Amino acid sequence: MPVTATSAAAPRPLVFAGFPASSWAFALRVWLAMMLALYVSFWLELESPSSSALTVAVLALPTRGQGLEKAGYRLLATAIGVAASIAIAGVFSQTDSLLLGVFGIWIGLCVYVAGLLDGNRAYAAALCCITVALIAVEQIDTPLQVFPAGVARGAAIGIGVLAVALVNEVLAAPDYHPVLADRIAALHRRVKTFAQGAERVSATAATSLLHDIAAVRPEIASLVTESSIGTARTEAARSALVDLVSAFSLGRMLAALPATSAPAKNAGDRTQEAARLTAMARSWLQSEINRKNAQVSSSLDALHEGTPPDHVWQAPLYRSRRIAAETGARAAISFTLIAVFFVLAGWPSTELCLSLVAVILGLGSTTPSPRSFTMVTLIAMPIASALAGILKYLVFNGVSEFQLLAIGFAPLVVGCALLISLSSPILSSLGRLVLVFTIAVLTPTNPQSYDPEVFLVTSLFACLSSVLVFAAQMLLPPLSGERRVQLLLREAQRELRRLDTRRIRHHAPEESAFRDAARIEQMLTANGSFPIDDQIASTTMRCFDQAEALRRCRAELDLVRQGPLAGPVQAARKSLVRRNGGAIFAAAEALHQASERSDLSASAAIATLVAASTTFAASLSSTDFSQGKRP
User: Fold this and answer.
1) Does the pLDDT at position 416 exceed 90?
2) pLDDT class of 347 with cuts at 50, 70, 90
């Protein structure tokens, strides 16, 4: 590929020690925000100053909007968690065993809700159970301290949020919308390449493209908190994603149509009519694809300028209630089993371990693979304990001056922040967990405690928490990626069968197509780094194509269902119920003839029926989609 003058003149980012300057700037902001939060917490003499530092570690995100959005959800979840802690401790404070059982149910409920959400909303649901763990469980022997502990934690979290917001504003943390616009533009180029027929897309490649489009959805919410025009930018980005999926589905319909050519002179009337209808469908689909591409370009312009898009789409989220329920039940049972283990063991001072167990279960529920997350915590927890010991007894070594505390924290915070900035999900997650767990084990206070016995017990139970969660997941394994894919595929097939008798809420065809793309994104995410089986990919895309064809046909038929075309339209609806390609094509012919007799235009309805006839052809296979065959 030749290098253009523009690309040759593009400045290269500054790199130091293998990290770009933007990563170093991000690490500096995290360190400054954490030290500011600790300083204010010490100055106000809060009971839980470490919570402010933990808040900064959790909100360590490279752009301003992302951090503010997560901060808002963290404050909301903290308020809900504090209220739940007071309620649970107030009702069940007389029976520790029953309290732990109720808390196990609360964990399962929070994990279930997290399974129905995405992005930072799912994190907020998980944080509701984590907050109860850090307040109610740690105060299990002193229930009267639940309210003061909740207030202290809320105040510390508020200081952490303000510190992050202030540092990001003063040091001009970058906005996220330029990055997001570039990602959507790259996806747009991929969709246009496919729709123009420049390349053939297999079922596996098609699912991958839909995954990449739907995966952007959770990230657009952060644009709301980025600036005063963030809401308009969010609407523009959301509309662009929906139109991308729509253009992609239209491109698959176009690719499935048979190649058109002038019929032979001796061809029958029916053959000539079929050729005309196919050419009509091809022309209409191409014009619709061009219109959708223009809408995507317009939405991208609106995203850059911060203006509302020409048409606002919703981007509905698909979540499996069954998968969420099974995940929540497993989390509740795992916590209960670990709590029973501690009750039978009779060990004192196990509140910290139970709290960290809830933290691991809660945060793990927001990841595609809870077991993989637990494995990362198994690695991060000993590292964090070792780093906390080095800081406490080798670096600080009895000092209490805040200046020395800030200098001693610098290598840890900057190093972990650099790992967080990496594109590798494993290294980024490891860096964040090491930073969070190190602060949790170290527990900065004013004055700092240097009791070695307390530190050893804390480190032991911190490491034990991840081991126990891993053991519980071995005894009661989480849903495997293969099982999740199978459940999601069955739900897609069941929805397709019921599409004749009910509508999926009240979404437009474009929005419903995005909802199906969100389900495909979950299927690929559940499978981790391994691609899904070719046969499953073909079945998945066949369900996607058929559902999209049905919805588009009905939407277009609804526009011409009255007047002289009512009879052919009703016949077309019946052919769609039968799901027979030949019957659908015959219905398209009848509608075309009726429209010519009545001098009414029904080209859109006819074109979608012709495309649906190919989609529902009896002998259609996944290979036929890419070759454009008609049986």
Assistant:
1) yes
2) confident
Q: Answer yes or no: do 122 and 244 share one domain.
A: no
Taking the complete model, does pTM exceed 0.85, yes or no? yes
Q: Which two tokens stand for residue 548?
A: 């999209």
156 located within any domain: yes
Contact between residue 252 and residue 152 where contact means Cβ atoms under 8 Å apart: no
pLDDT tens for 304-343 read 999 999 999 999 999 999 999 999 999 999 999 998 888 7
Does 434 fall in a domain? yes
Please tell me whether residues 167 and 185 are part of one structural domain.
no
Q: Look at residue 619 and tell me if it is in a domain.
A: no
* Contact (CB, 8 A) for 335 and 357: yes
| Together in a domain, 37 and 158 | yes
Q: Evaluate if residue 1 carries a pLDDT over 60.
A: no
Q: Mapped to the 3 state alphabet, what secondary structure does 256-302 carry?
A: HCCCCCCCCCCCCHHHHHHHHHHHHHHHHHHHHHHHHHHHHHHHHHH
For residues 356 and 105, give the distance between their C-alpha atoms in angstroms, rounded to a whole number.
17
Residues 225 and 341 in one domain: no
Rounded alpha-carbon distances, angstroms, from residue 58 to 28, 65, 406, 432: 15, 14, 19, 7
Instruction: Mention every residue, 6+ apart, whose C-beta is less than 8 A from residue 577.
Output: 500
- Look at residue 463 and give its three-state secondary structure: helix
Number of domains in the chain: 2
What range defines the domain where residue 27 resides? 14-175+318-475
DSSP result, 540-562: HHHHHHHHHHHHHHHHHHHHT-S
Task: Look at residues 517, 502, 509 and name the one whose alpha carbon lies nearest to residue 554.
Answer: 509
Using CA atoms, how far apart are residues 201 and 622, in angstroms rounded to an integer?
11
What mean pLDDT do residues 587-594 have?
A: 92
What pLDDT does residue 202 have?
A: 85
> Do 553 and 612 form a contact (C-beta atoms < 8 A)?
yes
- State whether 222 and 275 are in the same domain: yes
**Domain identity same for 33 and 162:** yes
Amino acid 200: pLDDT: 59
Strands 15-16 and 19-20: antiparallel
**Does one domain contain both 152 and 192?**
no
Question: 210 and 170 in one domain?
Answer: no
Averaged pLDDT, 352-366: 90
Asked if 19 and 393 touch (Cβ cutoff 8 Å), the reply is no
Q: What's the average model confidence in pLDDT over 162-176?
A: 93
Domain limit, last residue, from 425, 455, 475: 475
Residues 6 or more apart in contact with residue 83 via CB below 8 angstroms: none
Identify which of 242, 149, 123 has the alpha carbon closest to the alpha carbon of residue 517: 242
What is the helix, strand, coil percentage profile of the chain, to 5?
75, 0, 25
Residues in a beta bridge with 16: 19
- Is the confidence at residue 429, as pLDDT, over 90? yes
Work out the angle at residue 253's Cα, subtended by the Cα atoms of residues 251 and 254, and round it to the nearest 5 degrees. 65
**80 in a structural domain:** yes
